[in-house]
Specification:
It contains 16 helices and 45 strands. By secondary structure, the protein is of the alpha+beta class.
Length: 856
């Protein structure tokens, strides 16, 4: 049993959480279910419900009250079984603070004067209190203006970092609920919090960044609620009785890094037995509308993996260069001992240039952490309020010889559940796929960012629009992206314009003021639809429907009666490899062809969404609009011969993949695309827009062999060229590093940028052979299309209903394929050259030779 899209039910933000469950192996298909709710000694059963629903089932009882705990379990009746299954293991859901009136906490922070234009030394805040009775249960509801980490009696609360994450703070500030029962004791207690600037008031954005985007205060908002064994309660909330003092973090920034002076740190500062080394002064209290405090929709950012250095090299001047063998996002944890005042500097970069850190691609992100030792014995330390994108690190000032055991790289990202795997007989393709996974991990840090290393790290709408199909296969990202899409809706302009990136920060002169742009703005129509297909959440589609409709209505107004969106600023096929390094917009494809294609595609998907939501009038209106735009596209951009006015691979890929080319011109257009690919010797000639589509466009027009040639090309530009150059993540540019080892001279040269890794969706569906045939994979199409000399592939996806898997291998007589169909689902296997076979839940093996004999 699970609740909404959350890893657990603690502190849920809805009074009517939806329920999901998976069936035990061998169950077959569910015919009916019964849910039991145990709430405060009262039990409620639904009785037998004769429905097959098991995904996001509506809450079957009275709405939850704030703080209410309910234990839930389910049993099912399946096909062929006369009796119900045993009850599932009980799962507990507990509501957070659902009513703004539940909050009494106010923001508290340092009261001393600060210069808002400078790097400000972060504060710590603290409160001593007593509990005179034994503790039965305790919950901490906590958030901040800025970033926070809480300790109670010297013990860290939770294991998440960069909390509360980045939302459109004036409208939505996330709080998280922690079970802190084990942190408290009868008698004296102390709660304290480290504070950091983060996105709230730190320097963030382009060209030196902007400070204080959301405010100048750095404040904690915390409400500790204690229930005693005798049923009485106590509340310790942030108010004017708290105190503040400067902490040992001297400065901290997401771009800059962090400086920590261990000489100024009392490890007992958040305990009743503290040494009171520093003068604690009264806090300044602020205000916050509690109606803007919201519970999370997805998991937090956590450490998910630790990597030791694969090499440590000492330079002639005493520095140490570390290589972790993997481009990652996170920070270093060091264990070191040395005299008081010893200063250790940690610098980070993705690649080396001439044996040194290549920091030019970081632009103004210094990515430097500094530790000053206290001289009191071995110290284990890592920064708190920053992360870096790096594979290599330089350590300066280390006392003595640094070994691999002294330093660990800790990888951080939103702690989503892994759901998708792929491997095949080609090791370069496997490394490519692994690079896609690592780039997703590094850029799903609370929001879906473009890159994690330089002075940017923004939630670009176009990047996730093209990557969402891949992302939703690899990880359960529904809750995280649902939350981010909510912020996209809040940042949408009144006329329907969708920003280039969300949350919005100043970006003049190119990105501010905000202008509507195709492929980027279309995230509001296409990404909710993708999430609906992959996760089966109709309510998610409904929540973002108004945003999508406003965007399509805007495109309709901009296009006018001729239905061609051929005015205004557009990015077109961004980062077409033919574009010069300093002008990534200057691609080969008419940018207004791109805009009109996306207009038609979004209108079509808005019609599909309206149909699913039961809006017949809306479905008819937008389907008609999509037809009109399609006809206008054909008249303007497609010649009778099937040639396109922009004779470029991206133009054909768009026309074919979006079904914008007439039936008589479709095959000639596909043949022309194939001709262009051959002329380029199967090197990539597409940018952000064309790259996710070109393999499908080739495959669907009978040119599977060329799709594989594109995939397996190793000459630049290609997907595998970076792999041959040692890449461990997806690059922003096809040639971020040139064959001679020099870096692309463009100002945008990231080595961790997932957008061009969207080809992994084609790997999953075409090479791997798994496609969702119905929302949530309730129905699955298994259709592997071997080619390119690949002799076997294994693909697995944890659908909302359970495991779907396909492994195939070529044999002397054809193909042998093994399938796993989740319980409660159906599937169709379409092996090459054979009649489709319907499969039920369970394990199946098919051989094309045997199928041929059966057909004969």
């Amino acid at each position: 049993m699970s609740f909404e899209h959350l890893p657990d039910g603690l502190g849920i933000g809805t009074a009517t959480p939806r329920l999901s469950w998976t069936l035990a192996a061998g169950s077959g298909s569910q015919k009916a279910y019964e849910v039991q709710l145990d709430r405060g000694g009262r039990s409620h059963r639904t009785g037998r419900v004769d429905r097959p629903d098991q995904l996001l089932v509506p809450w079957p009882g009275e709405p939850l009250a704030s703080r209410e705990r309910v234990t839930v379990r389910v049993r099912v009746w399946t096909s062929g079984a006369r009796e119900p299954s045993p009850w599932s293991e009980p799962a507990t859901v507990e509501a957070g603070l659902l009513d703004p009136a539940d909050w009494c906490a106010v923001p508290v922070g340092a009261a001393w004067a600060e210069d808002p234009a400078s790097d400000r030394r972060p504060a710590r805040v603290r409160k001593d209190f007593r509990l005179d009775r034994p503790v039965a249960r305790a919950r901490l509801h906590v958030t901040a203006h800025g970033l926070y980490e809480v300790e109670i009696n010297g013990k860290r609360v939770g294991d998440d970092i960069l909390a509360p994450g980045w939302t459109v703070y004036p409208h939505r500030l996330r709080y998280r609920t922690h079970d802190v029962t084990g942190h408290l004791t009868q008698g004296a207690n102390t709660i304290g919090a480290w504070l950091g600037d983060g996105w709230y008031r730190g320097r963030y954005g382009f060209d030196g960044g902007t400070r204080n985007i959301y405010g100048t205060d750095q404040s904690l908002i915390a409400q500790l609620e204690v229930t005693h064994e005798d049923g009485t309660t106590a509340v310790v909330a942030t108010d004017g009785t708290w105190t503040a003092a400067p902490g040992p973090i001297m400065s901290s920034g997401l771009y800059e890094g962090e400086t920590f002076d261990a000489r100024l740190h009392d490890p007992h500062w958040a305990t009743p037995s503290r040494a009171d080394t520093f003068a604690w002064t009264p806090v300044r209290t602020g205000t916050r509308d509690p109606a803007t405090l919201v519970a999370p929709l997805g998991p937090p950012v956590r450490c998910t993996q630790e990597l030791p250095p694969v090499s440590v090299t000492r330079t002639g001047d005493g520095r140490h260069l570390l290589d972790f063998g993997q481009n990652l996002v996170g920070r270093l944890r060091v264990t070191v001992d040395g005299p008081a005042g010893t200063t250790i500097t940690l610098r980070h970069a993705e690649v080396l240039q001439d044996g040194e850190l290549a920091t030019r691609p970081l632009r103004e992100a210094h990515a430097t952490d500094t530790l000053v030792l206290a001289g009191q014995g071995p110290l284990t330390w890592e920064p708190r309020f920053t992360v870096h994108g790096f594979r290599h690190a330089e350590v300066t000032g280390w006392p003595g010889e640094l070994t691999a055991d002294d330093v660990t790289a800790r990888t951080y990202h939103t702690d989503m559940r892994r759901t998708g795997w792929f491997e095949c007989s080609d090791p370069l393709v496997n490394r490519l796929h692994e690079n896609v996974v690592w780039s997703m991990r590094g850029n799903f840090v609370d929001i879906p960012t473009d890159c994690p290393q330089r002075d940017e790290r923004l939630g670009w709408t176009g990047d996730i629009q093209v990557f969402a199909p891949t992302a939703s296969f690899l990880y359960d990202c529904a809750g995280m992206l649902d939350s981010w899409l909510t912020d996209v809706g809040l940042e949408q302009l009144p006329d329907g314009t969708v920003p280039w990136y969300v949350p919005v920060v100043p970006g003049a002169p190119m990105w501010t003021p905000i202008q509507p742009g195709a492929a980027w703005g279309d995230v509001v129509t296409l990404t909710p639809w993708t999430l609906y297909l992959r996760f089966g959440d109709l309510e998610l589609l409904r929540r973002h429907h108004d945003t999508a409709r406003a965007w399509v209505d805007l495109m309709e107004r901009l296009a006018g009666p001729d239905r061609l969106w051929d005015t205004g600023f557009q990015l077109g096929d961004w980062l077409d490899p033919a574009a010069p390094p300093d002008d990534p917009v200057a691609g080969r494809t008419d940018r207004y062809l791109v805009a009109t294609a996306y207009f038609a595609h979004s209108a079509r998907h808005l019609a599909l969404a309206a149909r699913e939501l039961g809006d017949r009038a809306g479905a008819e209106r937008y389907a008609g609009l999509a037809d009109e735009v399609t006809e206008a596209f054909r008249r303007r951009y497609v010649r009778p011969s099937g040639r396109m006015t922009s004779d470029s691979p991206t133009a054909y890929a768009l026309g074919l993949a979006f079904d914008l080319i007439g039936p008589d011109q479709r095959q000639p257009a596909g043949d022309r695309l194939a001709e262009l690919v051959r002329q380029d010797d199967a090197r990539i000639a597409t940018g952000f827009v064309g790259t996710p589509l070109i393999c499908d466009a080739l495959t669907d027009t009978g040119h599977l062999d060329l799709a594989y040639r594109l995939l397996l090309q190793t000459e630049c530009p290609s997907w595998l060229y970076p792999v041959t150059m040692g890449a461990t993540t997806i690059w922003e540019r096809w040639d971020s590093m040139r064959p001679d080892g020099t870096l692309n001279p463009g100002g945008m040269t990231s080595f961790n940028h997932y957008a061009l890794g969207a080809v992994a969706d084609w790997l999953h569906r075409t090479v791997g052979g798994i496609t969702a045939g119905a929302p949530g994979y309730r129905d699955i199409t298994f259709r592997p299309r071997p080619g390119g000399g690949i002799t076997w592939a294994r693909t697995r996806h944890e659908t909302p209903y359970g495991t779907a898997a396909l492994s195939w291998e070529l044999t002397a007589t054809g193909m042998t394929a093994r399938f796993t169909v989740p319980e409660g689902c159906t599937a169709t296997a379409e092996l090459p050259g054979r009649t489709p076979v319907v499969l039920g839940p369970g394990e199946h093996t098919l051989d094309t030779a045997e199928l041929a004999e059966d057909a004969a």
